[in-house]
């Protein structure tokens, strides 16, 4: 079922809950790929009913970002959702989600400043606002987020904890193309040449991971290793290379607890992200 | 029933909802008076079950405010709640409500700057945070707030709307002592002499209201009228006298729509507030 209003979602979810059914929820910006499908399939396997939202959220884009250009294809998205087993797809217009005089802000301070937040100052405030709203509208038992957006996942977990929201946040592994590129709706922006160059993200992370598994613990050396790999790719320009505590997202100097190794790299004009979490046994 | 943990509240409310019962909720800081009782009684009359929270919320007090001194008496409060028909009283410790590393903020910008927000910069952020949490814990059908805290009521209504929280916010009229003083837990701070002086709040507002009913529309004249009345009381010192749009809380120059006439006055060291909403027919 494809619906466009908050009212329709609420009515359907209330009817399910009245029957005692559990509800899983997958928030997306649409233009769905295998990464999203893996989230939906996990939600389907763990809940009686699954809601997917498809909404390119204006409040999480900065003024010079790609809100207008972000790819959209609701018919294809709806087909993928249905095929993956979702029961309800919620595709609201911005006007359905936001009042013109909205003035409420939700922020997870401390986790939102570094990494992607450094160059995208309004981004995570917009994410927190829209995810709060969707969680309040869908009232799921579980909500599924990709680990590719590692900072987003950490922030949402913290927000849900701090606001006592009654939902379990489930992180799901990154899904990659056969050659290792992390799936992203923004991969569609890449030319054929850039598509090849984009492999440098996963290649540099794989190199760092191997070195860490071999015992490398010095963060500046890990960073240098990633940086030099990226520099060898002429079409690539690193935005950030960060090794941080996997929960607090605070920088560390050496790897003495679980860390998130996260990078953002421009391939031509397209900014891509990738990461892995390194767990001390 | 008196409970102290989030878990107990959630379990009880879920059991009620499973039976199809509606839930009303009254948030308080305790030291309950007839004003609170009127909220609880209204909640009881409109819902199958009623939850009252009693929690002196540290995050809504500024560093030099009266958090430590704020009066507390949970046994008396519990008796009043039960007598008024409440089914569950939730009295958490601060540690139950807040993690030491909490870093999520909720703000209703635009409505929080003026009036009480001008001198209490962290106050409404703290209110929004704690009310968000309580609404997420109690998940009531309706929540009841006193009109005495008019700015708080406007902010909570806006927050609930902007975050798509599925709850009806119900405002309830100010309850007054026989001589007109608005009921407040802080009235207990007043000496006998100050108690008499405190009548100037209601007296000055009543005068303004009468003049407005007689046709006075110029805001600066209304303000002068209130100010001169307060100045005649030697123990009183006005903190603010504001005439604002009743919804947006933005200042107006003349009364051409519904306005909130709100004052804060120091009586000795005790800061009291009062207000009325003037509706154009």
Query: What structural class do helix, strand and pairing data of chain A support?
Result: alpha/beta
Q: What is the general shape of chain A? A: globular
Number of domains of chain A: 2
How much is the radius of gyration of chain A in Å? 19 Å
Most residues in contact, chain pair and counts: A-B, 31 and 31 residues
Q: Uncertain spans of chain A, ≥5 residues at pLDDT below 50? A: none
Largest sheet of chain A: 6 strands, parallel
CATH architecture of the largest domain in chain A: 3-Layer(aba) Sandwich
* Average predicted local confidence, pLDDT of chain A: 97
Binding site for (R)-pantoate (chains A, B): 60, 152
Main location (chains A, B): cytoplasm
EC number (chains A, B): 6.3.2.1
Keywords (chains A, B): ATP-binding, Cytoplasm, Ligase, Nucleotide-binding, Pantothenate biosynthesis
């Amino acid at each position: 079922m494809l619906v466009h209003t908050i009212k329709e979602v609420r009515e359907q979810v209330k009817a399910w809950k009245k029957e005692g059914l559990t509800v899983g929820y997958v928030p997306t910006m649409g233009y769905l790929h295998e990464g999203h499908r893996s989230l939906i399939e996990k939600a389907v396997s763990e809940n009686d009913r699954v809601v997917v939202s498809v909404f390119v959220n204006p409040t999480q884009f900065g003024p010079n970002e790609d809100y207008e250009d972000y790819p959209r294809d609701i018919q294809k998205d709806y087909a993928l959702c249905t095929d993956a087993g979702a029961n309800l797809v919620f595709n609201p217009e911005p006007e359905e989600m936001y009042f013109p005089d909205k003035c409420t802000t939700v922020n997870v301070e401390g986790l939102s400043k570094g990494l992607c937040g450094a160059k995208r100052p309004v981004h995570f405030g917009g994410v927190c606002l829209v995810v709060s709203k969707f969680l309040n509208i869908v009232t799921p038992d579980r909500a599924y987020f990709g680990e590719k957006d590692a900072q987003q996942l950490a922030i949402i977990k913290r927000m849900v904890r701090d606001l006592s929201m009654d939902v379990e946040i489930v992180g799901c592994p990154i899904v990659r193309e056969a050659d290792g590129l992390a799936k992203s709706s923004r991969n569609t922006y890449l030319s054929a040449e850039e598509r090849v160059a984009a492999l440098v993200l996963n290649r540099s992370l794989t190199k760092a991971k191997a070195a860490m598994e071999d015992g490398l613990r010095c963060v500046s050396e890990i960073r240098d290793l990633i940086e030099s790999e990226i520099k060898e790719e002429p079409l690539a320009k690193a935005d950030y290379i960060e090794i941080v505590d996997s929960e607090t997202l605070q920088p560390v100097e050496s790897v003495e607890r679980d860390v998130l190794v996260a990078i953002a790299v421009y391939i031509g004009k397209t900014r891509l992200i990738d990461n892995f979490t390194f767990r001390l046994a």
